[in-house]
Specification:
The structure is a single chain. The protein is an alpha/beta fold and 484 residues long. The chain folds into 2 domains: 148 residues, Leucine Aminopeptidase, subunit E, domain 1 (3-Layer(aba) Sandwich); 323 residues, Aminopeptidase (3-Layer(aba) Sandwich). The strands form 4 sheets. An 8-stranded mixed β-sheet has the order 7-8-10-9-13-17-14-15, with helices on both faces. Helix 3 packs parallel to helix 4 and helix 8 packs across helix 13. The mean pLDDT is 94.
Length: 484
């Protein structure tokens, strides 16, 4: 990663470090006397009158090799706000020639627990880049020393790192091109996480056929690449409690199949497996931070191609649940992958709850843009928990309607249901209504349509463009606040 955080103050370049100090809102600097020389204080006190204090970060050049940087924060600031400040700090100094920074943690208030950890967390998350395939790397590391008594504990340092590693892993997976990360390779990478203590099972096409997962298999049958279902189990609770279940759509590349997508922007369809990447990143985070919870992740991995054996519009398939589906559009494939995965997860693991994630519909982007994921659920309590967790980490969700009146839009004359609403309208809701039919035993369930959140052309507060890893931090927060 492009940023190195050092808590032991052992940098050989400390004398050349740029000093970072926190000040209260409107740059009240009176408390800085004890942290810098009197001459430096007077210098800053004089020049600050010429600065735009509406900016959160001000830089004072002391010499060609040394700066004092003031970061302004308001009293009772939220952790998410300080994370955004950390991200802004990275964006401001990522191209700085002098790339060593010493952060004095004692200048940040103790009133809110672990603010310095959140600042560094935001800095790290923003620093991510996927330049694996560039022969010339165009980045320079930021090297950060943290001094003072207000540093995060070892426990909290490890927790932040685990969440970062899980988020970065999800971003890495989403960023890989389709010729590299196809279902078998993806399954292999997930299997490598066994070393972290996860119990992992791979189901290849032979096993899936035996299980009767025909809606999932139908999506992948036009590709020469084999389809997979992968389960990941983390048993971190001493109690033999029911696990929390997380299910992800893993369409490694989506051409639309016979219902072929337009050529323009089809290259972005490498990220149609982002829902599964979130689940994998989450499970990695839980294992790394030794989360005190029982959890299971399930991902369906396929490639949707218009081959000679591809599924046709008009085909009827029988799902793992026994319900039959008429395929009216082969580009409505994610719900077919999730249908079998959801029923299997509910039946096999008997979870306390199920949350599924998918880049499922373009309609959710029309509704919510890139500010909120669409939330559909059969449970008010789970919905409130997800909304609250999302607000805390700024991975927001907005609840959308489910209602039996929508069922008539996906009822089929020839099978139990059809995979699209052929009349038009309510595209995201009818997709979620379709998924709900595969929750057989009324398990509390939530569907997150993350089509507008998984990938960003222009970057966001905590990412620099490309894969965002949206959902890993949201679900970590859900678990941390309500289930550990």
């Amino acid at each position: 990663m492009p940023t190195s955080i050092n808590y032991k103050n052992s940098s050989k370049n400390k004398k050349q470090s740029n000093l970072v100090l926190f000040v209260e809102e409107n740059f009240k600097i009176s408390a800085l006397n004890k942290y810098i020389k009197k001459s430096e204080y007077l210098f800053i006190n004089d020049l600050i009158k010429t600065k735009d204090i509406k900016k959160k970060i001000l830089t004072f050049e002391l010499s060609s090799k040394r700066k004092i940087i003031l970061v302004s924060y308001k009293e009772n600031t939220k952790p998410s706000e300080i994370e955004n400040l950390g991200a802004k700090f990275y964006e401001t100094f990522k191209n700085n020639k002098q790339n060593y920074f010493t952060i004095n943690s004692d200048t940040l208030s103790f009133k809110t627990k672990n603010l310095i950890g959140h600042f560094l967390h935001g800095l790290k998350l923003k620093s991510y880049k996927f330049d694996k395939y560039k022969t010339k790397k165009d980045r320079k590391d930021l090297l950060v020393d943290v001094v003072g008594k207000n540093k995060p504990s070892i426990f909290d340092q490890n927790k932040f790192k685990a969440i970062e590693d899980g988020t970065f892993y999800a971003r890495d997976l989403v960023s890989e091109p389709g010729n590299i990360l196809y279902p078998k390779e993806y399954a292999k990478r997930i299997n490598s996480l066994k070393k972290l203590g996860l119990k992992i099972n791979l189901y290849d096409e032979k096993k899936l056929k035996k299980l009767g997962m025909n809606t999932l298999l139908g999506v992948g049958q036009g590709s020469i690449r084999e389809s997979y279902l992968v389960t990941m189990e983390w048993n971190g609770s001493k109690k033999k409690s029911k696990p929390l279940a997380f299910v992800g759509k893993g369409v490694c590349f989506d051409t639309g199949g016979i219902s072929l997508k337009p050529a323009k922007f089809m290259e972005d369809m490498t990220y149609d497996m982002a829902g599964s990447a979130v689940v994998v990143g989450l499970m990695k985070s839980l294992a790394l931070r030794k989360a005190k919870v029982n959890a299971v992740g399930v991902v369906g991995l396929v490639e949707n191609m218009p081959g000679g054996n591809a599924q046709r519009p008009g085909d009827i398939v029988k799902s793992y649940s026994g319900k039959t589906v008429e395929i009216l559009n082969t580009d409505a494939e994610g719900r077919l992958v999730l249908a079998d995965a959801l029923t299997y997860t509910e039946e096999k693991f008997k979870p306390k709850l199920i949350v599924d994630l998918a880049t499922l519909t373009g309609a959710i982007i029309v509704s919510l843009g890139s500010e909120y994921a669409g939330l559909f659920s059969n449970d008010d309590n789970l919905s409130k928990q997800l909304i609250n967790a999302g607000e805390k980490v700024e991975e927001k969700v907005w609840r959308m309607p489910l209602n039996k009146n929508f069922d008539k839009l996906i009822d089929s004359k020839n099978a139990d249901m059809q995979n699209i609403n052929y009349v038009g309208g309510a595209g995201s809701t009818t997709a979620a209504q379709f998924l709900q039919r595969f929750i057989i035993k009324n398990t509390p369930w939530a569907h997150l349509d993350i089509a507008g959140m998984a990938f960003s052309k222009y970057g966001g507060a905590l990412n620099s463009g490309g894969a965002t890893g949206y959902g890993v931090r949201l679900l970590n927060k859900l678990i941390e606040d309500y289930y550990e």
